[in-house]
Amino acid sequence: MSGIGKILENNNFKRLGTFIITCLFISGIIMTSLVTKKYDLQEGDIAQFDIKAIKEVTDKLNTEEKQKQKIQSVPLQYNKNLEIRKEALEQIENLFFQANKLIERDLNEKEKIEELRKEAEISLSEEEIKSLLTLDKAQLKVLHENLINIMNSVLDLDIREDNPEDIRKAQDAITVNFNSSKLSKVLRDLGIRIGILEIKPNFFYDEEKTNELKSEAKRSVDPITIKKGQIVVKEGEPITNRDLVILSDLGLLDN
User: What distance in Å separates the CA atoms of residue 242 and residue 59, rounded to the nearest whole number?
Assistant: First the structure.
């Protein structure tokens, strides 16, 4: 018998061979179990079995949707410019001051109209100026006092820029207040006209503050997580884009 034959018949060699083969077999089983199974899936496919998460991952799409909803719930932020109110009241005061002065001056009607138009900062029409200058001092005083009282209230309203509804509400408030007063029609009409001309936006959009609050709202959203062992895809249900994103993050997509 050759030397090789003797070696093969040696019991020790046989045991060694059996051990090596067994180790290779067990290693193969272990390696197979460690290799993550991947799936070739497309959106709209019907799942043939449940697929569970092999680790914890963030549900990106649902988290982003929740963040979007939180951001959209943040109202636009505005800052109020108090100088608008001050300027309006000053212009009204100046109008009546100039009108009272012109009553005492020895000028014809046309000259008085031109003078008031030049000195006043409120753009009244020629007919409105003429009507104002036909009033005596007592009537001017009554109109002045009523107008200031009404405007003090109306100018406290928040009148947002680029918001016609806010302007309309303020103008309506002036009209209602004068029409409910006991003033003559001439004084009511003049008061309404002067007041409406003084309505300007006083509430201005603050982009920086709005964006800051939106960022805070986004940060306040806790990430939605898929836990290890949680079912991602249920058997018999169609595969969604959200499912594909999660499976991709889990490393379970073959495509």
Answer: 8
Alpha helices in 37-134 (DSSP H): 60-72, 82-104, 109-119, 126-133
For residue 183 the two structure tokens come to: 């003033």
pTM of the predicted model as reported, rounded to 2 decimal places: 0.65
Residue 19 in tokens: 């051990």
In this structure, the dihedral spanned by the alpha carbons of residues 156, 117, 93 and 172, taken in order and rounded to 10 degrees, is: -30
Beta strands in 188-233 (DSSP E): 203-205, 225-226, 231-233
Find tokens 């309506």 and name the residue. 172
Longest CA span, the chain: 151
Chain position carrying tokens 């209230």: 153
What pLDDT, in 10s, does the model give residues 125-167? 999 999 999 999 999 999 999 999 999 999 999 999 889 999 9
* Tokens linked to 132: 């104002």
10 Å Cβ neighbour count for 195? 25
Label residues 56-68 b or e (16+ Cβ within 10 Å = b).
Answer: ebebebbeeebbe
Q: Which residues contact 222 (CB under 8 A, 6 or more apart)?
A: none
